[in-house]
Design goal:
This protein is α+β, with helices and mostly antiparallel strands and 499 residues long. It folds into three domains: 92 residues, no CATH class; 370 residues, Cytochrome-c3 Hydrogenase, chain B; 31 residues, no CATH class. A hairpin with a 5-residue loop joins strand 13 and strand 14.
Length: 499
């Protein structure tokens, strides 16, 4: 939406900080004299250096260290790092107990994160409207007006956190997954306590899916049109049949029409498929598919991608919900931004069904916890771990030296994959809702709603050190007294535009 309009004649409107998201970011809009949007950008202003300070640490510390990227989805980083280091060490497969415990941990994370995002962060906008009173748009307001919905959200998240506590050792930043396996079993009493709550949790998950479907049916024009744009989709799927797979699988991508762009591609070779670029106004990178190039190769990840990228869901209740959702596309894909919420609740139901299935596996109660290291050390100790985190595809890539210290690290987190898509959503919604109107809280919140639909984790996404540009803007005392900028690019070049 950038134009050649004289920037000196444009008015800047900032949403800073974005509310009800994890991490720190802002949106800037440039409006002309008619209050029409000429530029709209999502800026990630939080900075973290995980890719650099992981280097030099012993490999066995990494699955615990990387969780500090985030307090909302630490399990995803914990498991992705463990899986990457398994590969780097030459561990072919972890024991059945470790597989079951890791999967249970992961699906507990999906459940609690989706419940947190929908009920606590997004439901106020969906239940009360984007232009409702600002003091009402929060979980307290939901609890007052819809106590049953709020209670279900709180207890669903509590259950997911309990699954995490029993598998990882703690609800946040646990230690349960280790290179080659896990370090604990469930006791029979722990397993039985979780199993006893399954019927109620399944019922509440189904009600959540129905709630979102009902909201869509009540305002189809809004849910189909708000911030809608076409894109490709990327996720992992189960290798043998393309089923939804959130823990381990192969890469698949579809174009905006649903045609397969790539399929069955090993996650170990993701660098052949995905490239990242930097831009001077954000600390978050912009990934794209190499085969399509920078302009056309960006894509979306997360629930909306996974529900439509898979061939089917192998749990019956979620599959029935997926088919109902897919019918909204009328033979094509659903591209609406707000459809993320519907897809997210389908995944929450699927996660609960998988948890119920896993709790019937006696491998949780006993068996080998870790796989032995191979007798011969791999010639190159390098590995990639990919998992479908709540927000989308998460990639961890490590190389380990002969001294057992990490020599290289690359992370592409879910929110980074969605960076261009979130910017597209901001531009689309800004053009729709402003369109000559004077900015007010309701209009600004509508832009936030578009970003919030992606459940962005901005802390996770801003992890690079040394690759991002630094920009300083110099202004005078007057409101419009712009003096210029000084930019240091990621390659060390310094660009001055000082007046």
């Amino acid at each position: 939406m950038d134009t050649t309009t004289d920037p000196g004649k444009l008015r800047r409107v900032a949403i800073d900080p974005l509310s009800r998201v994890e991490g720190h970011g802002k949106v800037t809009l440039l409006l002309d004299e008619h209050n029409r949007v000429q530029q709209a950008r999502l800026h990630i202003v939080e900075f973290r250096g995980f890719e650099s300070f992981i280097v030099g640490r012993p490999y066995w510390e990494v699955p615990v260290m990387v969780q500090r990227l985030c307090g909302i989805c630490p399990v995803s980083h914990h498991l992705a790092a463990s899986k990457a280091i398994d590969v780097a060490l030459g561990v072919g497969a972890v024991p059945p107990t470790a597989e079951a415990m890791r999967r249970l941990m992961h699906y507990g994370q999906i459940l609690q994160s989706h419940a947190l995002h929908f009920f606590h962060l997004s439901s106020p906008d969906l239940l009360f409207g984007f232009d409702s009173e600002v003091t009402k748009r929060n979980i307290v307001g939901v609890a007052a007006a819809h106590p049953d919905i709020a209670r279900q959200g709180v207890l669903l998240r509590k259950y997911g956190q309990e699954v995490i506590r029993l598998t990882a050792g703690k609800r946040v930043h646990g230690t349960g997954s280790v290179p080659g396996g896990v370090n604990r079993h469930l006791t029979r009493d722990e397993r039985d306590a979780l199993a006893a709550e399954v019927p109620q949790m399944l019922a509440w998950c189904e009600q959540a899916v129905e709630l979102v479907a009902t909201l869509h049916a009540q305002q189809p024009a809004l849910y189909d049109g708000f911030g809608t744009f076409r894109s490709s989709f990327l996720s992992i799927v189960r290798e043998r049949d393309g089923a939804m797979e959130l823990y381990d699988g192969v890469l698949r991508a579809r174009d905006a029409d649903g045609a397969i762009l790539l399929d069955g591609r090993s996650v170990q070779r993701y660098l052949e498929l995905i490239e990242e670029e930097t831009r001077p106004w954000s600390y978050m990178k912009f990934p794209y598919l190499k085969s399509l190039g920078r302009d056309a190769g960006w894509y979306r990840v997360g629930p909306l991608a996974r529900v439509q990228n898979c061939s089917f869901i192998d749990t019956p209740r979620a599959e029935a919900a997926r088919q109902r959702f897919a019918a909204q596309g009328r033979g094509g894909l659903v591209h609406a931004t707000l459809a993320y919420h519907w897809a997210r609740m389908i995944e929450m139901l699927h996660a609960m069904e998988v948890i119920a299935r896993l709790l019937g596996d006696d491998a949780l109660l006993g068996g080998e916890l870790t796989a032995p290291l191979p007798a011969t050390r791999p010639a190159t100790r390098e590995g990639v771990g990919v998992i479908e985190a709540p927000r989308g595809t998460l990639i961890h890539h490590y190389a380990i030296g002969d001294d057992d210290l990490v020599t290289w690290c690359n992370l592409i987190v879910s929110t980074t994959h969605n960076n261009q898509a979130m910017n597209e959503a901001v531009k689309t919604v800004a053009a729709q809702v402003f369109d000559g109107r004077e900015p007010d809280d309701a209009l600004l919140n509508a832009v936030e709603v578009a970003v919030r639909a992606y459940d962005p984790c901005l802390s996770c996404a801003t992890h690079a050190l040394g690759a991002m540009p630094l920009e300083i803007t110099v202004v005078g005392l007057g409101e419009d007294d712009w003096r210029g900028t000084l930019v240091r690019h990621g390659d060390g070049r310094v660009e001055r535009t000082l007046a």
